[in-house]
Amino acid sequence: MSNNKKVNHLGIMGGTFDPIHYGHLVAAEMARSKFNLSKVLFIPTGIPPHKNRRDISAGELRFEMVERAIQDNPAFACSSLEIERQGPSYTVETLRVLSRAWPEHELYFITGTDALREIFSWREAEEILTLIEFIGAARPGFDASDFLEHVQEEHPDIIGKIHYLEVPALAISSTDIRFRVRHRQPIRYLLPESVRLFIQEHNLYT
Ligand code: NAP
Q1: 20 to 30 Å CA-CA from 2: which of 96, 141, 158, 198?
Q2: So where are the chain's domains?
Q3: How far, in Å, CA of 199 to CA of 126, rounded?
Q4: Per-residue pLDDT tens for 32-61?
Q5: Given this model, what pLDDT does residue 1 score?
Q6: What is the CATH number of domain 8-173?
Q7: Residues with CB under 6 A from ligand 1
Q8: Which of 14-23, 70-79, 98-107, 127-136 shows the lowest per-residue confidence on average (mean pLDDT)?
């Protein structure tokens, strides 16, 4: 944790959310409770720096799915900050905006462990590491030891800022949901019904 700890904690849930599913929602709720987050702000990525734009659904559609999914949780909110920004969505730019907007809050960035493993290749990784605490939401069976050893050896100053959360519900994945839709397999109970209907209405992933 940072030395001058702030009392208020804000969660920032970064992801493509194509589509959002119960694994993401459970991860956000577990993080909220464990790290005493007053709010969790979901931020769907605009154009992820590491992905081809054609691979992903339009930002407005992903944003609307997130809005539908979180509507019954007063501690959850969604921001269109990244999907409205031109060019690739660099996390460092988002975090700068948020740390100015929420100066009294310690920021906790929550994302999947696969993405977190790549953190040192992200733009201005060192700046990012000064701005936030990281929460890696891990799928069942994920082994963090290699990554933590690497951090301990190469970046010992930030090891205390990296936290892991094992989330059994992350057995659900967006990739699998897209596959299921494409192959006409059921997706009910993997994600909120409002999101399932949205996918159907907009003919996504077919
Ligand atoms: P991704 O490659 O789509 O996802 C990597 C893995 O993590 C997938 O298994 C994914 O599962 C899971 N995942 C993603 N977000 C999650 C979340 N919030 N909670 C739990 N699991 C999650 O990663 P991404 O979504 O593009 O990127 C994740 C975050 O890292 C985004 O905020 C992105 O902007 C940031 N990022 C920044 C940079 C940079 O600044 N250079 C580079 C890469 C990523 P599902 O498919 O089921 O979601």
Answers
A1: 141
A2: 8-173
A3: 38
A4: 999 999 999 999 998 777 776 667 999 999
A5: 46
A6: 3.40.50.620
A7: 13-16, 23-24, 27, 45, 48-50, 89-91, 110-112, 114-115, 118, 122-123, 137, 170, 173-175
A8: 127-136
